[in-house]
Design goal:
The chain has a domain of about 170 residues: Aminohydrolase, N-terminal nucleophile (Ntn) domain (Glutamine Phosphoribosylpyrophosphate, subunit 1, domain 1, 4-Layer Sandwich). The protein is about 45% helix and about 20% strand. The chain has six helices and ten strands; from the N terminus they run H-E-E-E-E-H-H-E-E-E-E-H-H-E-E-H.
Protein backbone atom coordinates (compact mmCIF):
# COMPACT_ATOMS: atom_id res chain seq x y z
CA UNK A 1 0.00 0.00 0.00
CA UNK A 2 1.63 3.32 -1.01
CA UNK A 3 2.31 6.05 1.52
CA UNK A 4 0.15 9.17 1.31
CA UNK A 5 1.74 12.53 2.13
CA UNK A 6 -0.43 15.63 1.99
CA UNK A 7 0.73 18.47 -0.29
CA UNK A 8 1.08 20.77 2.73
CA UNK A 9 3.39 18.31 4.49
CA UNK A 10 5.43 17.71 1.35
CA UNK A 11 5.99 21.47 0.84
CA UNK A 12 6.87 21.93 4.51
CA UNK A 13 9.42 19.10 4.40
CA UNK A 14 11.02 20.56 1.28
CA UNK A 15 11.19 24.04 2.81
CA UNK A 16 12.75 22.72 6.03
CA UNK A 17 15.29 20.74 4.05
CA UNK A 18 16.28 23.77 1.97
CA UNK A 19 16.55 26.08 5.01
CA UNK A 20 18.82 23.64 6.83
CA UNK A 21 21.09 23.39 3.82
CA UNK A 22 21.30 27.17 3.45
CA UNK A 23 21.95 27.66 7.19
CA UNK A 24 25.08 25.51 7.00
CA UNK A 25 26.81 28.11 4.82
CA UNK A 26 27.93 31.67 5.47
CA UNK A 27 25.69 34.63 4.68
CA UNK A 28 26.31 37.46 2.24
CA UNK A 29 25.46 41.17 2.04
CA UNK A 30 24.52 43.49 -0.82
CA UNK A 31 24.36 47.19 0.04
CA UNK A 32 23.94 50.44 -1.88
CA UNK A 33 26.43 53.30 -1.61
CA UNK A 34 26.67 56.69 -3.29
CA UNK A 35 28.59 55.50 -6.36
CA UNK A 36 27.04 52.07 -6.89
CA UNK A 37 26.23 48.74 -5.23
CA UNK A 38 28.61 46.75 -3.00
CA UNK A 39 28.68 42.94 -2.64
CA UNK A 40 30.46 41.28 0.31
CA UNK A 41 30.61 37.59 1.23
CA UNK A 42 32.97 35.48 3.37
CA UNK A 43 34.76 33.27 0.86
CA UNK A 44 38.41 32.14 1.11
CA UNK A 45 38.27 30.51 -2.34
CA UNK A 46 39.61 32.49 -5.26
CA UNK A 47 38.10 30.15 -7.84
CA UNK A 48 34.58 29.32 -6.56
CA UNK A 49 32.79 32.67 -6.65
CA UNK A 50 29.64 33.61 -4.77
CA UNK A 51 29.47 36.96 -6.59
CA UNK A 52 29.48 37.26 -10.37
CA UNK A 53 28.61 39.51 -13.28
CA UNK A 54 25.45 38.70 -15.23
CA UNK A 55 25.19 41.55 -17.75
CA UNK A 56 26.29 45.13 -18.36
CA UNK A 57 24.83 46.68 -15.19
CA UNK A 58 23.58 43.55 -13.44
CA UNK A 59 25.32 41.27 -10.93
CA UNK A 60 24.46 38.12 -9.01
CA UNK A 61 25.21 37.02 -5.44
CA UNK A 62 24.32 33.65 -3.94
CA UNK A 63 24.67 31.50 -0.83
CA UNK A 64 24.05 27.80 -0.33
CA UNK A 65 25.19 24.81 -2.35
CA UNK A 66 27.75 25.95 -4.91
CA UNK A 67 26.96 23.50 -7.73
CA UNK A 68 23.28 24.48 -7.63
CA UNK A 69 23.63 28.25 -7.67
CA UNK A 70 26.36 27.96 -10.32
CA UNK A 71 23.74 26.29 -12.54
CA UNK A 72 21.46 29.26 -11.89
CA UNK A 73 24.23 31.76 -12.65
CA UNK A 74 25.07 30.19 -16.00
CA UNK A 75 21.42 29.95 -16.95
CA UNK A 76 20.94 33.61 -16.02
CA UNK A 77 23.86 34.67 -18.21
CA UNK A 78 22.37 32.75 -21.15
CA UNK A 79 18.94 34.27 -20.55
CA UNK A 80 20.42 37.79 -20.47
CA UNK A 81 22.56 37.25 -23.58
CA UNK A 82 19.69 35.81 -25.60
CA UNK A 83 17.29 38.56 -24.52
CA UNK A 84 19.83 41.28 -25.35
CA UNK A 85 20.55 39.71 -28.75
CA UNK A 86 16.92 39.17 -29.75
CA UNK A 87 15.67 42.57 -28.59
CA UNK A 88 17.95 45.26 -27.16
CA UNK A 89 20.62 45.38 -24.46
CA UNK A 90 18.50 47.83 -22.47
CA UNK A 91 15.68 45.28 -22.37
CA UNK A 92 17.79 43.12 -20.03
CA UNK A 93 16.80 44.25 -16.52
CA UNK A 94 17.21 42.96 -13.00
CA UNK A 95 13.43 42.79 -12.64
CA UNK A 96 13.06 40.57 -15.70
CA UNK A 97 15.91 38.35 -14.58
CA UNK A 98 14.51 38.10 -11.04
CA UNK A 99 11.12 37.04 -12.42
CA UNK A 100 12.79 34.42 -14.59
CA UNK A 101 14.76 33.07 -11.61
CA UNK A 102 11.58 33.02 -9.52
CA UNK A 103 9.77 30.92 -12.12
CA UNK A 104 12.72 28.54 -12.42
CA UNK A 105 13.20 28.06 -8.67
CA UNK A 106 9.44 27.79 -8.10
CA UNK A 107 9.18 25.02 -10.69
CA UNK A 108 12.14 23.15 -9.20
CA UNK A 109 10.70 23.49 -5.68
CA UNK A 110 7.28 22.20 -6.75
CA UNK A 111 8.21 19.45 -9.20
CA UNK A 112 11.57 18.14 -8.01
CA UNK A 113 11.86 15.72 -5.06
CA UNK A 114 14.79 17.79 -3.81
CA UNK A 115 14.68 21.63 -3.84
CA UNK A 116 17.71 23.81 -4.52
CA UNK A 117 19.56 24.75 -1.33
CA UNK A 118 20.31 28.37 -2.09
CA UNK A 119 19.23 31.99 -2.08
CA UNK A 120 20.25 34.57 -4.64
CA UNK A 121 20.31 38.33 -5.08
CA UNK A 122 20.02 40.08 -8.43
CA UNK A 123 21.12 43.73 -8.42
CA UNK A 124 21.15 46.40 -11.10
CA UNK A 125 22.92 49.75 -10.81
CA UNK A 126 21.20 52.73 -12.43
CA UNK A 127 22.23 56.27 -13.25
CA UNK A 128 20.83 57.53 -9.93
CA UNK A 129 20.66 55.73 -6.52
CA UNK A 130 16.84 55.84 -6.21
CA UNK A 131 16.59 53.84 -9.44
CA UNK A 132 18.89 51.00 -8.30
CA UNK A 133 17.21 47.59 -8.10
CA UNK A 134 17.79 44.84 -5.52
CA UNK A 135 15.86 41.57 -5.63
CA UNK A 136 16.14 38.63 -3.26
CA UNK A 137 14.93 35.27 -4.60
CA UNK A 138 14.53 32.39 -2.15
CA UNK A 139 14.66 28.63 -2.70
CA UNK A 140 10.89 28.37 -3.34
CA UNK A 141 10.77 31.11 -5.98
CA UNK A 142 9.58 33.93 -3.72
CA UNK A 143 10.79 37.39 -4.81
CA UNK A 144 11.41 40.31 -2.47
CA UNK A 145 12.06 43.83 -3.73
CA UNK A 146 14.67 45.25 -1.34
CA UNK A 147 15.78 48.83 -0.76
CA UNK A 148 19.17 49.99 0.46
CA UNK A 149 20.55 46.65 1.56
CA UNK A 150 19.78 42.94 1.64
CA UNK A 151 21.26 39.95 3.48
CA UNK A 152 20.95 36.34 2.35
CA UNK A 153 21.78 33.09 4.10
CA UNK A 154 20.94 31.30 7.33
CA UNK A 155 21.68 34.34 9.53
CA UNK A 156 20.01 36.88 7.26
CA UNK A 157 17.64 38.25 9.93
CA UNK A 158 20.40 38.92 12.47
CA UNK A 159 22.57 40.55 9.81
CA UNK A 160 19.69 42.69 8.52
CA UNK A 161 19.09 43.99 12.06
CA UNK A 162 22.69 45.22 12.26
CA UNK A 163 22.57 46.65 8.74
CA UNK A 164 19.46 48.62 9.64
CA UNK A 165 21.39 50.33 12.44
CA UNK A 166 24.41 51.16 10.27
CA UNK A 167 22.89 51.92 6.89
CA UNK A 168 22.53 55.52 5.69
CA UNK A 169 21.53 56.92 2.32
CA UNK A 170 24.43 57.99 0.08
CA UNK A 171 27.09 56.20 2.11
CA UNK A 172 30.65 56.17 0.85
CA UNK A 173 32.23 52.92 -0.28
CA UNK A 174 34.23 52.79 2.96
CA UNK A 175 31.10 53.34 5.06
CA UNK A 176 29.17 50.70 3.14
CA UNK A 177 32.00 48.19 3.59
CA UNK A 178 32.14 48.94 7.32
CA UNK A 179 28.38 48.41 7.61
CA UNK A 180 28.58 45.14 5.66
CA UNK A 181 31.39 43.79 7.85
CA UNK A 182 29.51 44.79 11.01
CA UNK A 183 26.49 42.92 9.71
CA UNK A 184 28.43 39.80 8.76
CA UNK A 185 30.05 39.79 12.22
CA UNK A 186 26.57 39.10 13.63
CA UNK A 187 26.79 35.51 12.32
CA UNK A 188 30.00 34.87 14.28
CA UNK A 189 27.99 34.34 17.51
CA UNK A 190 30.32 36.48 19.60
CA UNK A 191 33.52 35.10 18.06
CA UNK A 192 35.86 37.43 16.24
CA UNK A 193 35.23 37.29 12.50
CA UNK A 194 38.22 37.03 10.18
CA UNK A 195 37.99 40.11 7.96
CA UNK A 196 41.30 39.69 6.16
CA UNK A 197 41.22 40.42 2.46
CA UNK A 198 42.06 36.78 1.73
CA UNK A 199 38.89 35.63 3.54
CA UNK A 200 36.43 37.94 1.78
CA UNK A 201 34.97 38.18 -1.70
CA UNK A 202 34.13 41.79 -2.53
CA UNK A 203 32.83 43.33 -5.75
CA UNK A 204 31.00 46.46 -6.88
CA UNK A 205 28.74 47.72 -9.62
CA UNK A 206 30.19 51.18 -10.30
CA UNK A 207 27.65 53.74 -11.41
CA UNK A 208 30.15 55.89 -13.34
CA UNK A 209 31.64 53.10 -15.47
CA UNK A 210 30.46 52.87 -19.06
CA UNK A 211 29.04 49.64 -20.50
CA UNK A 212 30.23 46.93 -18.07
CA UNK A 213 30.05 48.23 -14.50
CA UNK A 214 31.08 45.09 -12.56
CA UNK A 215 34.47 45.11 -10.87
CA UNK A 216 36.08 42.87 -8.27
CA UNK A 217 38.01 44.43 -5.38
CA UNK A 218 41.13 42.43 -4.53
CA UNK A 219 44.71 42.82 -3.40
CA UNK A 220 46.04 46.16 -2.19
CA UNK A 221 42.85 48.03 -3.11
CA UNK A 222 40.74 45.78 -0.88
CA UNK A 223 43.28 45.83 1.96
CA UNK A 224 43.28 49.63 1.98
CA UNK A 225 39.48 49.75 1.98
CA UNK A 226 39.31 47.27 4.86
CA UNK A 227 41.80 49.36 6.87
CA UNK A 228 39.68 52.47 6.27
CA UNK A 229 36.52 50.56 7.21
CA UNK A 230 38.06 49.36 10.49
CA UNK A 231 39.11 52.92 11.32
CA UNK A 232 35.59 54.15 10.58
CA UNK A 233 34.12 51.45 12.85
CA UNK A 234 36.49 52.32 15.68
CA UNK A 235 35.68 56.01 15.32
CA UNK A 236 31.96 55.30 15.44
CA UNK A 237 32.37 53.13 18.54
CA UNK A 238 34.42 55.86 20.23
CA UNK A 239 31.74 58.45 19.47
CA UNK A 240 29.05 56.20 20.94
CA UNK A 241 31.13 55.70 24.09
CA UNK A 242 31.63 59.47 24.46
CA UNK A 243 27.90 60.09 24.08
CA UNK A 244 27.14 57.48 26.72
CA UNK A 245 29.62 59.06 29.15
CA UNK A 246 28.23 62.57 28.66
CA UNK A 247 24.63 61.41 29.03
CA UNK A 248 25.15 59.48 32.28
CA UNK A 249 26.40 62.42 34.47
CA UNK A 250 23.58 64.61 33.14
CA UNK A 251 21.01 62.02 34.19
CA UNK A 252 22.59 61.71 37.64
CA UNK A 253 22.71 65.47 38.20
CA UNK A 254 19.10 65.91 37.11
CA UNK A 255 17.97 63.23 39.53
CA UNK A 256 19.95 64.78 42.43
CA UNK A 257 18.36 68.20 41.83
CA UNK A 258 14.85 66.84 42.42
CA UNK A 259 13.39 68.00 45.78
CA UNK A 260 12.75 65.44 48.47
CA UNK A 261 9.09 64.64 48.96
CA UNK A 262 9.27 62.94 52.37
CA UNK A 263 7.10 64.31 55.20
CA UNK A 264 8.40 66.01 58.38
CA UNK A 265 8.07 63.97 61.51
Amino acid sequence: MPFYVSPEQAMKDKADYARKGIARGRSGVVIQYDAGILFVAPNPSRALHKISEIYDRIAFAAVGRYNEYEILRKAGVRYADVTGYQYDRQDVTARGLANWYAQTLGTIFTDSPKPFEGEIVVAEVAEAPPEDQLYRITFDGSVNDEHGYVAVGGQAEAIATVLKEHYRDNMTLTGALAAAIAGLAAQANGDRMDTAASQLEVAVLERSRAHRTFRRLTGTRLENLLAEARSAQQGAQADQADQAETTAPADQSSSSDEPETGGVS
